[in-house]
Amino acid sequence: MTAPERPPRARSTEDALKETERAFRTVLDNLPGFAYRCRNEPTWPTELLSEGFEPLTGYPPSDLLDGRVTYASLIHPEDRDRVWADVQEGLAARRRFQSTYRMLTRGGEKWVWEQGQGVWAADGALAALEGLVLDVSGQKAVEMELRHAEERFRLLTEHSWDIVHVQDAQRVIQYISPSVERMLGFAPDEMVNRRGALFVHPDDQDFVRGIYAGEMLQPGATTRTEFRLRHKDGSWRTVEVFSRNTAGPGQPPYVITYTRDVTEQRRMEAELRQLALYDALTGLPNRTLLLDRLGHALARAGEGGDAVCALLFLDLDRFKRVNDSLGHAAGDRLLQEVARRIQAVARPEDTPARLGGDEFALLVHSARSEGQVMGIASRLQAAISAPAALDGAEVTPSASMGVALLHEGYAGPDEVLRDADIAMYSTKARGRGGFAVFSPTMHADAVGLLETENALRRALDRSEFRTFYQPIVSAETEALVGWEALVRWQHPERGLLGPAAFLPIAEDSGLMVRIDRWVMSDALRQLCLWRERFPGLFVSVNVSGSDFDHPGMVEQVQSALSEACVPAGSLRLEVTESVLIENVAADSALRQVKALGVRVDLDDFGTGYSSLSYLSRFAVDALKIDRSFVASLREKPESRAIVGAIVSLAGSLGLEGTTAEGIESREQADDLRAAGCTHLQGYAFSPPLPAAEAEAWMVSRGAA
After folding, report:
1. Dist. CA 486–CA 662, nearest whole Å
2. Residue from 135, 136, 98 nearest 117 by CA
3. Strand 399-405 relative to strand 465-474: parallel, antiparallel, unpaired?
4. Element (H, E) at 275
5. Which range (121-130, 192-201, 534-543, 613-622) has the least confidence?
């Protein structure tokens, strides 16, 4: 039997209901969450659950529908009481309830938003709960980030040492952070609604106004400026300001500004610049700044013109004596006084400088002529040479000066400094004091000196030095009593060189100590051989000031004596008066040497400082009369008087005697014998001889 066909209207209503149900299901299934309905029973069993449950929680709907998972277990334990309170509050008021909480899913913790309501029976009893749960983790993350950002901004503005403030188009402060009180002493309400320009230093007003006027016209513009702001106590703080115009197109301009106090930083930077470019002791420009200004002066010299520029290079003479005798503090005060004197001579356009140690310079800018430069050099020389009082002692400083005139041929400032230095050493070579103007021949001489220095170093390694010996005889009998050891250099190209050709270079280059020690060892070894045939002989060896500047001098003497196997009394050290006075360590070292049994002769006596008061404190055994007095003995009565005074002085001080050196004739020998000298030395008896010839001389004299 065929079922009766439904009328068209009934079919249309049924289709419409199905379509509505399908559409509703589609909406539910595409929600970022799920819909639910649960009955009001003790365990609130779920009777309806949309397909979105599994994508959100990771659990299939059947787990919840069959009771294998309870909804309460999915709510974070810390949120359960609050969620249930939200539900109860909504039910009590018979309105929808809402709650945001954390859900424990298989994929981890998620934030969800739930909205639901009660379903009431006809008798008014609660029959069920139904609602919607949506995943709001993304929104919550944004919300939390915003909250954290707000908190960070609050912490930044309230606790940062930097100031954050906002100004409007009229530069009126709309907001300023509490840190303004720490930086400027003003409370925020003392600055809000006031123009920022009121706090800017008057000298910076125009600059700041120009910056901000331009900034107002450019939305999105950023600037970095530095100026001074007034502190509440009236002082000024240097600040670094970063600003940004936050306006978009068509929006009113607001400028957010971050202000940092850089007062101490700038002060320290200024101090560092001072240390980097200025000498700490004298306050003069240092080598770095001088070379910079010298470079600019060279550039101007290359542009031509009639102006003359020159570099004056100064080195104080015998400055070490001040340090050694009066102390380094006095030496520093002398350097400061010299700096003051250089500044007094310098013109406003010139650059005085200290290059280090006792070296100074004066860069003369735009002189009218070379003659004016020489005039400045002369005034500078006179100013420095004036007496100065240091710790109750009067010191008369002097300086050797070199002058280099700037010209186009210089490749850089270092070359100018080099040539001025060369000219200065040329002045020292002429006897110190005064000044010399650099010339190309000086450079050639300097190159020659460098070549000689290098050759000297090789000579030590190649054993090119030779020891010559000049006899010392008794004034009474002219019998041989000893020898003075004198060094010669057997140069591979220039032949045999006397000491004047290389010892000054060795002294300046630091090689003197090695040469002196070599001569001592060689002379003592030779003396050991001679004493087997010629007993009682001694050998005199010269020692320089450099020997006392190096540790171990006493040990070196003791070692040389031990190696040669000769008694200490057979060695005499000859030291000049100037060495003893200029080197405070010399007297102590010589006393230790004398304790070994070695004798000490004061060489060239009377030519150094002519201060007899020094003699009583020196540990010397005998005096050597300088050849200059011997040479003029008959021509100058004063020389005869000086020789007599030296002999008398030696006797009064209980010294062993006096040796006159540089004797050229028998007449000189007779005069010196008559004057009371105990020993004689010079070409009148023999020139310096190599060891073999010296031995032959002894044999010929019957010394054996």
Report:
1. 14
2. 98
3. unpaired
4. helix 263-277
5. 613-622
Q: Confidence band (pLDDT; 50, 70, 90) for 25? A: low
Query: How many angstroms separate the CA atoms of 297 and 310, rounded?
Result: 9
CA angle centred on 300, ends 294 and 306, rounded to 5° = 115
Confirm if 612 and 643 have CB atoms less than 8 A apart.
Answer: no
Helix (H) or strand (E) holding 265: helix 263-277
Condensed to tens digits (0 to 9), the pLDDT of residues 384-438 reads: 989 888 877 788 888 999 999 988 778 899 999 999 998 888 888 777 677 888 8
- H or E segment at 609? none
Rounded to whole angstroms, the Cα distance separating 626 from 472 reads 14
One-letter amino acid for residue 72 of the chain: A
The tokens describing 124, both together, are 């008014």
Cα separation, 334 vs 397, in Å, equals 8
Helix (H, G, I), strand (E, B) or coil at 433: coil
Cα distance between residue 205 and residue 335, in whole Å: 44
pLDDT confidence of 161, banded at 50, 70, 90? low
Instruction: Give me 423's structure tokens.
Output: 């000219």
pTM of the model: 0.52
The answer to whether the beta carbons of residues 28 and 10 sit under 8 Å apart is no
The secondary structure of 445-501, three-state, reads: HHHHHHHHHHHHHHHHHHCCEEEEEEEEEECCCCCEEEEEEEEEEEECCCEEECHHH
User: 363: closest CA among 377, 378, 382?
Assistant: 377
Among 121-125, 324-328, 661-665, 679-683, the range scoring the smallest mean pLDDT is: 324-328
**Rounded distance, CA 380 to CA 374, Å?**
10
Nearest-angstrom CA–CA distance, 216 and 211 = 9
Decide: 618 and 584 in contact? Cβ < 8 Å. no
Q: Strand locations in 215-288, DSSP E?
A: 222-230, 236-245, 255-261
Q: For the chain, what's the residue count?
A: 704
Instruction: For residues 688 and 484, give the distance between their C-alpha atoms in angstroms, rounded to a whole number.
Output: 8
Widest CA span of the chain, in angstroms? 179
List strands edge to edge, sheet with 236-245: 173-176, 163-167, 255-261, 236-245, 222-230
DSSP string, 636-690: -HHHHHHHHHHHHHHHHTT-SEEEE----SHHHHHHHHHHT-SEEESTTT---EE
Q: Per residue in 113-127, is it b (16+ CB within 10 Å) or e — as a string?
A: bbebbbeeeeeeeee
Smallest CA-to-CA distance from 678 within 623, 631, 597, 626 is with 623
Contact 685, 471 (CB under 8 A): yes
Tokens of 623: 């005096």
Structure tokens that stand for 514 in this block = 């090695």
Contact 579, 547 (CB under 8 A): no
Distance between CA atoms of residues 227 and 239, nearest Å: 6
What's the number of CA atoms in the CB half-sphere (13 Å) around residue 661? 19
What b-and-e string marks burial along 283-310, b requiring 16 or more CB atoms within 10 Å of the CB? ebbbbebbbebbeebbeebeeeeeebbb
